[in-house]
Amino acid sequence: MKTYLNPSPEQWPLLAQRQTVASADLNETVKSIFNDIEKRGAKALKKYTQYFDGVTLENLKVSETEIEKAAAEVSADLQKAIQTAAENIKRFHQSQKEISKKIETTSGVFCWRESRAINTIGIYIPGGTAPLFSTVLMLAIPAQIAGCKNIILCSPPDKKGNINPAILYAAQLTGVTQIYKVGGIQAIAAMTLGTDDIPKVDKLFGPGNQYVTSAKQYAQQLGTAIDLPAGPSELLVIADDSCDPEFVASDLLSQAEHGGDSQVILITNSEKIVSKVTAAIEQQKAVLPRQSVVEKALENSRALVFETIQKGIEFSNFYAPEHLILVVEDAENKIGLIENAGSVFLGNYSCESAGDYASGTNHTLPTNSYAKNYSGVSLDSFVKKITFQKLTSKGLQNLGPTIELMATAEQLDAHKNAVAIRLQKLQNGDYN
Amino acid sequence: MKTYLNPSPEQWPLLAQRQTVASADLNETVKSIFNDIEKRGAKALKKYTQYFDGVTLENLKVSETEIEKAAAEVSADLQKAIQTAAENIKRFHQSQKEISKKIETTSGVFCWRESRAINTIGIYIPGGTAPLFSTVLMLAIPAQIAGCKNIILCSPPDKKGNINPAILYAAQLTGVTQIYKVGGIQAIAAMTLGTDDIPKVDKLFGPGNQYVTSAKQYAQQLGTAIDLPAGPSELLVIADDSCDPEFVASDLLSQAEHGGDSQVILITNSEKIVSKVTAAIEQQKAVLPRQSVVEKALENSRALVFETIQKGIEFSNFYAPEHLILVVEDAENKIGLIENAGSVFLGNYSCESAGDYASGTNHTLPTNSYAKNYSGVSLDSFVKKITFQKLTSKGLQNLGPTIELMATAEQLDAHKNAVAIRLQKLQNGDYN
Questions:
Q1: For chain B, is the Cβ count within 10 Å smaller at the N or the C terminus?
Q2: Closest CA of chain A from B34, distance in Å
Q3: Quick check: A27 pLDDT over 90?
Q4: Which residues of B contribute to the annotated binding site?
């Protein structure tokens, strides 16, 4: 982790740079798999599953029996932990429900909006050694609260043709309606286009490697909404003397273990803190199993020392971190200064892993400086907000002349006429 | 307008089809203009303005003097109408402000979210004969309420090098911070990349032709957020005997005059209503100036007769119209059935043009069935919602074991360690 003292604003763009992974242009691969699945459906899906996941499957759909059996394999302790996390996530996302307010903008003109669930959503959960059941909670719980009718989950099977029991347990607990053993580009293609088995979804959620990311981008071009643009995970910690350097070190490491392309940034107003945190990182790192991953991530990471915490927050706004830990004196009174961040953790006891798993906030967040223009996943991500309006005859009489004038000025005569014809009948006394 | 009696669900996909405009692949054109503007900035902008808009400009930025002068050219009546509309739009969008609620999900674990304005937004307003000042109101007013620091507006100049006075008046009224005389792909490129003159924006808003649409898609690939995927405008009217057929006809025509690619759909439970509406359309159409446009739009349009209004609403949900007028008995009690729509107008006096201009709702709405998975523009479109959390030491003690168990099961040891190291110190009595 290289240290920079009082970097000047000219240096900021370089210091805010993420590691750019030279991603292969996967467009052609993605298109050809989409075309194949559009033409041959389940047959093509099974072929790709055989090829990429090394397993021949009769049925892609996970049966009720399989789910029950798998759930029983999850230890009682882990079941309880997942339940606790699920309750917190539910509580927080339920608080995001919007209460409809009817506004009378002009006398007799009433406007309001109401939320409606997106009908069918698709959740992609990557395979690999670690089962990301926490992401199932983060996506299926708000979908369930929103009232999505179909909550589809796709995840690649292991060599034995199974999905990890913890994923199935979490899916069952959170109201996922259908689960399919299919991964990669082919899973995204199936949910985008629909097959005989797998329903076409309205919106796609979930993380994935560069193949999945490319496939989601292509899906978006075809009209399927997606949760967020993708990028490697990142953490920025702003710490002053009130921090415990060992805690800070543990948080930076928890982010670094996500992948070699992760980035962690430490911002402080004291060089001493940098030394202490660096020393603690060396010590804690020694016992971690994913050392090579952590070391690779730390190579892309930086410590920045600013004269004031306020200047540090300015840099943080420029960087727009996915996760921001603010462990400074009087942290809660400084949050007004925060402009760009995915999720913010305040004080010594709010470690990032609390939000990753169980505090209740969502862990699907904007990376790669997208916190400047995107929000993380929330209940909002699973609904559309529809506006409604009702004008009474009086309301139209009050507002009509305004509309007529504006329509005329925009040279839209039929727009004007829609008002004029009504006002005329009202004036004639045909209505009241 | 062709009529269909009780179309079967098998026919619905065909009946819900929008007119597909064979759009040229503009990717290469878009990329080359973006590249040129990235390299040569204002010089390239001026070149394209000369080429596409036929005018040579010294300054692309509209000066304060020009704005003042133009505003004075707008008639007092139109100024007042714009002000009235602006007040209603402000009132309704202000009601969309979210009040932050702090939730204690577990004892000692506090989660909440707060909105922050997107810093810099770009508004594109097309040129042409009709000045779309109403779109300025719809985009700049919520941006101002959100607190966006820079509200940039680009619009192509006319042959004399001017932007329509009504657009400048609306921009001045609604807090637009900078206005530039630049249009088309080059305007979108300038706002996406930034030039010496024009700031790089975080999010792009506004309508446009296929060139602008392609450029916005490309901007999105480069990381700039956009308001909505584009498509031709559309209206679906559901009417029963309680409707006034002349009013319905006027609404269908107001939609049809937008463009030859617009679509209008009439749904009713009575063939008589179709005849009456069709007759009224013929009559009203005769006096409209944009007759050829209207006729072209009506060619893509349909009347569907269902046995019940409820069935008609089902079709409407399948179609997912941008605008939906519901003029049926007891309309307000039927809105619970509406699942997919951009904006809904209830009863005989709620004509679409009210929402297009002045009632207060936004007119930037999802078209082309995107109402299934996208909301229209609202205050939400101009903010990010950042989550915050604070765990007290007790909070971490309560939730810590849950996080540790989940992190272990996901094989993320450093995530577990971030909790363990804190719990250990608390147990040692180092903190309280």
A1: C
A2: 20
A3: no
A4: 124, 186, 209, 233, 255, 258, 323, 356, 410, 415
Q: How far is CA A134 from the centre of its chain?
A: 13
Q: Which residues of B touch A341 (CB under 8 A)?
A: 386
In angstroms, rounded to a whole number, what is the distance separating the alpha carbons of residues B88 and B358?
7
Report the complex ipTM. 0.96
Least CB–CB distance from B359: residue in A82, A289, A389: A389
Question: Tell me: the pLDDT tens digits for B121-156?
Answer: 999 999 877 899 999 999 999 999 999 999 999 999
The question of whether A323 is a catalytic residue gets the answer yes
CB atoms A91 and B103 under 8 Å: yes
Look up the CATH architecture of domain B27-226: 3-Layer(aba) Sandwich (3.40)
Q: For residues A111 and A34, give the distance between their C-alpha atoms in angstroms, rounded to a whole number.
A: 42
Residue-level length of chain A: 432
Is A96 or A432 the better-scoring residue by pLDDT? Answer: A96
C-alpha distance from B76 to closest chain A C-alpha (Å) = 11
Q: Which residues of A are annotated as a binding site for Zn(2+)?
A: 255, 258, 356, 415
Active site residue A93: no
Intrachain domains A27-109+118-226 and A231-375 with the same fold:
yes
- Reading across the β-sheet that carries B343-346, which strands appear in turn? A103-106, A109-117, A383-391, B343-346, B323-327, B234-239, B263-268, B302-305, B2-5
User: In chain A, where are the structural domains located?
Assistant: 27-109+118-226, 231-375, 392-427
As to burial, measured by CB atoms within 10 angstroms (0-12 exposed, 13-18 middle, 19+ buried), residue B152 is buried
Overall fold of domain B231-358: Rossmann fold (3.40.50)
Identify the active-site residue in B322, B339, B363, B404: B322
The enclosing H or E element of A36 equals: helix A27-40
Active-site residue (options: A322, A332, A339, A404) = A322
Size of interface A-B (CB pairs under 8 A): 420
Q: Calculate the alpha carbon distances from B314 to A126, A293, B12, B309, B317 in Å.
A: 36, 52, 10, 9, 5
Strands (E) located in A82-174: 103-106, 109-117, 120-124, 150-155
Q: How far, CA to CA in Å, does A282 sit from each of A236, A291, B418?
A: 19, 11, 15
- Direct distance between the N- and C-terminal alpha carbons of chain A, in angstroms, rounded to an integer: 75
Architecture of domain B392-427: Up-down Bundle (1.20)
| Domain made up of A231-375: CATH architecture | 3-Layer(aba) Sandwich (3.40)
DSSP letters, A197-214, are: SSPPPSEEE----HHHHH
Give the pLDDT band (50/70/90) at residue A289. Answer: confident
Query: What topology does CATH give the domain A27-109+118-226?
Result: Rossmann fold (3.40.50)
